[in-house]
Amino acid sequence: YLPVGDLAKKKIYPTLWWLYRDGLLPEQTHFVGYARSDLTVDAIRTACLPYLKVTDTEAERLSAFFSRNTYISGKYADEASFAKLNTHILSLPGGTEANRLFYLALPPTVYHDVTKNIKQHCMSTKGWNRVIVEKPFGRDLQSSEELSAHLSSLFTEEQIYRIDHYLGKEMVQNLMVLRFGNRIFGPIWNRDSVACVVLTFKEPFGTQGRGGYFDDFGIIRDVMQNHLLQMLSLVAMEKPASTSSDDVRDEKVKVLKCITPVSMSDVVLGQYVGDPEGEGDAKLGYLDDPTVPKGSTQATFATAVLYVHNERWDGVPFILRCGKALNERKAEVRLQFTDVPGDIFGNQCRRNELVVRVQPNEAVYAKMMSKKPGVYFSPEETELDLTYKSRYKDVKLPDAYERLILDVFCGSQMHFVRSDELREAWRIFTPLLHQIDKEKPKPIPYTYGSRGPAEADDLSKRVGFRYEGTYKWVNPHRL
Fold first, then answer.
1. Which structural domain range is residue 55 located in?
2. What residues have CB less than 8 Å from 258, skipping those under 6 apart?
3. Checking CA distances to 126, which of 75, 214, 387, 466 falls within 20 to 30 Å?
4. Where does the record locate the signal sequence feature (predicted)?
5. Catalytic residue among 88, 121, 150, 227
6. pTM score, whole prediction
7. Nearest Cα to Cα of residue 230 among 208, 247, 253, 204
8. What is the CATH number of the domain that holds 226?
9. 298 inside domain
10. Tens digit of each residue's pLDDT (9 = 90 or more) over 297-320
């Protein structure tokens, strides 16, 4: 169920092709596109080809993939069109018995009509039916609740897969194993040893013509309320009873329930301005994007501090930072540990940190103190380093979407967002979002390609993060 929009051609079709190419989907799977536009399978193929990464030896396999693709054009609110879609699915080989998976890569405005029509006209009577819903899941608690109520009036929770592609990333999934598969981390993963937790998402580019969409949502809805909060819940949750989907998601909900709504005094908002010395896009500020409304106060950068009020984390700040047009591309989780009590080295020791880098260059490394080689007894900072590129040579990490779509086929919901989890996430951010929408505070300007507003670093320091800045992780180019 795939209109060939940006997401479809860059992510969904390539993912389905890779899964099909590698024999991970049943050979007799059929792919049916449905949208308003007058498209052909050839047009879809041409639009997607640059993203499919096809090698010369795979031409035949690619033809087999596209021979299983069909396309139906129809309106989203028109019942007759969906009846036509259903007739088409039934006419495919094995169509009467087949399982059906609907992928809704759609603007939220048409969700109600489309889901209602799928339920009334396109459900399989013999196989399973599953629906993948793409974010944004609403704009605030109320709109999200309305969407959830609408979906749950049509489908069971087992049939709904709310996709947050961050949950498909290798290192995000690794958080579970690091925490619950290692004795050395278990006992120190709490308020006694952790000074603060920093969750970061940085992009080195601006809105690039997507300003219209972005301006409507802003950085908090776009990244913080979903991706960063998902990572926070995996870092902070208690050990689940098992690795089954609901046991894991139960613990994530419990930890979110312990977070009080974010207050404006714990937030710094920024908006990028052009760098006069920059090149190309770097010269342009957010307000120079022609798709952005004049004088917009929408934030392109945010730092927020959250607190988890439970026995394990009481008093530990969780610092969420995200932004566009920054100095690097990076997503990571950083635990900074407290100072060593009873310091005998005269303030020469830095704090230990455990860093899980989600992208780029997946890695887990621990910053620790070691004696500097030589005759003096001086500690220096070094790292224990697991960089995936050097440890796992030639291992291809699957794309997040590959993993997640395969999970849907297998019926595993562990890496998908449950409705009560979504409700708690919106509860935490809605008061802040409403206050920003109402008061329209002016964001602090920061230069394209910088680290963001200095005020954000001041906020992190104020709540207890110590940035020593003496040490840089070096990507090991080992032979």
1. 6-164
2. 308, 309, 310, 313
3. 75
4. none
5. 227
6. 0.91
7. 253
8. 3.30.360.10
9. yes
10. 999 999 999 999 999 999 999 999
